[in-house]
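BUG: 3D viewer hangs when loading the predicted structure for this chain

Environment: internal workstation, default settings.
Expected: structure renders.
Actual: progress bar stalls at 90%.

Input used:
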Amino acid sequence: MERKQLAPGVHITTLEADKFNRCRIAIHLRFPARRDTATLDAVLTQVLERGYAACPDMTALSRKLAGLYGADLGVELSGAGIDRVLSADICGIKDAYALAGENLTDAYADIVFGTVFEPYLVDGVFDAEAVRIETETQARRLQAEFNAKRLYCVRQARRKFYGDSPAGIELGGYPDELASVTPAALKAEYDRILTQSRIDVMVQGTDAARVAEKLLHRLDGVRRDPQEPGALVAMPRTPLRRYTEKLPGLTQAKLCMLFTTGSADDVPTVSALRVAMNLLGGASTSRLFMNVREKQSLCYYCGAAAHRATGAMMIDSAVEPGKVMQAEAAMLAEWEGLKKGPITQEEMDDCRRGLLSGMDALEDSLSALEGWYYGQILRGEPLYPPAYGKVLTSAVTIDEVRRVLERYSYSVGYVVTARPGTEGKGDPDEE
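C-alpha cells produced before the viewer hung:
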C-alpha cells in the first residue's frame, strides 16, 4: 500500500489486490458543496455516466465495456461532511487474463479518466438531449422520495435539524430548480469541480505507474485551484423540537430522532463511534433491537447511526401509529442506560464480534477495500488495513463508549403517521 502526491491536490494510492483476478481504478473529486449548485451536481453525475468524448452515447460506451470482457463503469455523487465527492470507477479482469494479451490497464484508464476529464460536449457545452433526459430522470427520483416513507421521514427530519447549514444541502438537489438546469450551467459547474476539487485516484491490481502517467496527461492544461477540505461541523444544542406530519394510507408510523454534539471539538475516534452505535442500535444484539423491538414489541425496526463529520446521531424506526411516544421513550431509556447504567462484557463481545466479522469481509471485495481506505483519506487519517482496524476496535473500552454517547443531546423528533380514518390503506413502505 502506497499513497503518493502527483501534483498539488492530486494523489494516487496503490492497494494490494494479489488474490483477485480483477483490477479496479477509481477517481474521487472532493469539492466544496454549494446550495446554489446542488441540483446541477446531481444532474451532472448522471450525464457523465452516459458517455464521454470517445464514446458519446450509452450504446457506444456499453459496446466498449463489453469488448473489455464485460468491464463495469460507475459514476456517483456522495457527501463528505460539508463537501461533495464525485467518483468514477472501472473494474475488469487483470491484464494477465486477457486472451489476446491486450493492454487492459490503458483501456480502463482511458475510459474512467475520459469520463471525468473529457465529457461529450456539443458546441462547448453538454449535450442538450442528455441534459433533458437526466433532468427528467432526477425529477422522478426526487418525486419518488415521498413514496418511500422511511426515507421521506429521515429527510424531513434532516431538513428541520440542519436548516440552512451547509451540512443540510440536499445531495439530490431541489425539484423546483430542475427547470433551470441548462447545458451551459452544467458545464460551468463541471469546470468549477475540476478547478476546486482535491483528486484521489485509487488503483488495485494493475500498473499504478501507468495509471499515474495517464492521469497527469489528462490534467495537463486543466486550470487547478484545489480547495481545502471542509471543516467538521455540529449543529448547536437547542430545546427539543417535535414535528408530526399526517399522511393518508399508512400502516406504520415513522419516527426519526436526531441528536447533536453541539460542538465539533473533541471528535471521537471512528472505532469508538462504531462500537457505540453498534451497542445502541447497529446490530441484532443492540439495546434497541433486543429491548425495544424484541422484548417490548414497540417497533417493526429501529436502528442507530452517527455521522462523525457533522456531529449528528440518528435513531429511526417504524412503530404502530398509537405507540409513537411510548416507543420514543423506550429508545431514549436505552440511550440513557448505556450512558449511566451497566454494560456487560458479553454485550461488548457481541458488539465487537459483528464489527470484526465485517472487517474480515472487506478483504473479499475490491470496492469495499477501496471504500475502507478512501474513508480514512476523507477523515485525514494515516492509512491502515482492516486488520489494524480490528485491533483498534478490540481496544475500545466501556468508558469510551459512554463518553461518545454522553456527547449527544436530543434535538429533533419527526413523526410521519396516518391521517385519522385512513390507517392501513396502502402504505407503500412496510419495512
